[in-house]
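Module 6 notes. Inverse folding takes a fixed backbone as the condition and produces residue identities as the prediction. Think of it as a translation problem where the source language is geometry and the target language is the twenty amino acids. Below is one complete input and output pair. Work through it position by position during the lab.
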């Protein structure tokens, strides 16, 4: 099965051929750690987790390296640290904010069934690599020092004309248009208004590091150079896949690509650039001011993580997704059914139809359609049940046993199983003494709380009553 992926740079679906099939390499831009991640942030986490799982399936578990960075240097982090820990020295407060946010992020994405990436590098641990890249770029004329800043010059890149890609190619923009469209009140230290920052001075009290040569005062890196440095350190000068949300195409990824290609004199940084579409909530752009801003943590209070995961994967990753309550309810019903059919079944390989659907540019909607078919076959056939279960696990579902799944739902509904069991035995006693009025009353009392009783017989033919939530 040939894997095909859509590449943002060449704007087409192309066969995926790794540089080294024994060492498939993927980089995805990770969170800036200053607050709880929102449900939009969960989209790249889930999408690239599915791709990671697929690559591991195709090339072998130990032949895929997935790097997702942690951006732990940013103005938003500094602001949050000063606000939340006014009594602490800023550096200590920053450490508290970033460590706590990173922990929260892990708890959230673990609950979404996402595997941990192979490496999760922190920007502040790669300042030395950033300095090396910046100094190379200055030495080769792609960047320059001005007023304690280092700036990258896209115009120098496009003038070099030496097998480098064209600046603007990823975002499909022309540099001339960017120059024409740029704001006029350009920062005084920039030669051209399209130049962007590789390194800048730190304000007093802010975290700072020794600057690249030519700058005496300590400073701090720009955002884009962080990812070029971490990708280089962990994946090499060129690698296979670079991913993130569509909002990162410009300027972040355009600038990463420019930095890395110019530093290493290469035509490419990554062979495939992948971007997930945006998520909106109930038909509107998610924003704090609209009041529809929702964190992963808030959703996890109401829904199992697998419901959020399924709800995300029902839409193809490149399409925009509208996150709705109705969609969540439908995803929850589907998972209840899948758990009832497949939980606790054993199977070792996912169905070929699932692998095939994902191999077509991660067509998860088609994979889910295939799951519905597998589910129907599984009802009456033990081997098919194993394949169905293995397919679900391959996609990151069925992380719980049937009992855990049911128990969690009961917990969420506020129903105490002991209370239900107690009423069931009261009802059995009432029926024993032929007090059907009382037994009906108990049934109604339970039904009012959403508990549905099912009367049947056990293996020995004795009457038993089981229950479930409506
Ligand atoms: P940020 O912390 O804003 O840099 O975002 C982290 C990741 O989440 C990036 O890959 C973004 O592209 C992605 N992202 C942010 N907001 C959304 C959204 N509403 N829908 C989909 N992806 C998003
Ligand atoms: Zn990045």
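Target side of the pair, the amino acids:
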């Amino acid at each position: 099965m040939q894997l095909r992926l859509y590449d943002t740079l060449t704007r087409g679906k192309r066969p995926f051929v790794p540089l080294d099939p024994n060492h498939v390499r993927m980089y995805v831009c990770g969170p800036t750690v200053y607050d709880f991640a929102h449900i939009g942030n969960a989209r790249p986490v889930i999408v690239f987790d599915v791709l990671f799982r697929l690559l591991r399936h195709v090339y072998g578990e130990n032949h895929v390296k997935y790097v997702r960075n942690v951006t732990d240097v940013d103005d938003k982090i500094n602001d949050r640290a000063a606000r939340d820990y006014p009594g602490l020295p800023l550096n200590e407060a920053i450490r508290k904010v970033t460590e706590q946010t990173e922990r929260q992020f892990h708890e959230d994405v673990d609950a979404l069934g996402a595997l941990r990436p192979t490496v999760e590098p922190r920007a502040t641990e790669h300042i030395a690599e950033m300095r090396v890249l910046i100094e190379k770029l200055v030495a080769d004329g792609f960047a320059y020092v001005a007023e304690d800043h280092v700036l990258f010059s896209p115009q120098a890149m496009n003038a070099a004309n030496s097998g480098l890609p064209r600046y603007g190619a990823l975002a499909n923009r022309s540099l001339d248009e960017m120059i024409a469209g740029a704001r006029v009140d350009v920062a005084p230290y920039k030669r051209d208004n399209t130049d962007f920052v590789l390194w800048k001075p730190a304000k007093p009290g802010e975290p700072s590091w020794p600057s690249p040569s030519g700058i005496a005062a300590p400073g701090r890196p720009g955002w884009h150079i962080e990812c070029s440095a971490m990708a280089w350190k962990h994946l090499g000068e060129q690698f296979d896949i670079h991913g993130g949300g569509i909002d990162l195409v410009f300027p972040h990824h355009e600038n990463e690509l420019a930095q890395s290609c110019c530093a290493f004199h290469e035509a490419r940084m990554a062979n495939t650039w992948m971007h997930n579409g945006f998520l909106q909530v109930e038909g509107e752009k998610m924003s704090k001011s609209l009041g529809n801003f929702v964190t992963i943590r808030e959703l996890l209070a109401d829904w199992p993580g697998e419901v959020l995961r399924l709800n995300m994967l029902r839409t193809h990753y490149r399409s925009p997704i509208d996150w709705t309550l109705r969609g969540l309810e439908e995803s929850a019903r589907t998972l209840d059914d899948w758990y009832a059919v497949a939980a606790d079944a054993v199977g070792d390989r996912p169905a070929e139809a699932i692998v095939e659907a994902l191999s077509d540019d991660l067509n998860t909607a088609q994979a889910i359609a295939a799951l519905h078919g597998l589910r129907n076959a599984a009802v009456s056939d033990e081997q098919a049940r194993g394949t169905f279960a293995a397919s679900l696990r391959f996609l990151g579902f069925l992380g719980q046993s049937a009992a855990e799944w049911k128990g969690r739902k009961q917990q969420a509904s506020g129903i105490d199983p002991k209370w239900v069991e107690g009423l069931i035995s009261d009802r059995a006693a009432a029926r024993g003494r032929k007090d059907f009025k009382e037994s009906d009353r108990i049934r109604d009392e339970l039904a009012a709380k959403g508990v549905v009783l099912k009367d049947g017989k056990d293996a020995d033919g004795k009457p038993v009553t089981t229950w479930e939530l409506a």
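Reference fact for the lab report: Residues 221 and 336 are 48 Å apart (CA to CA).
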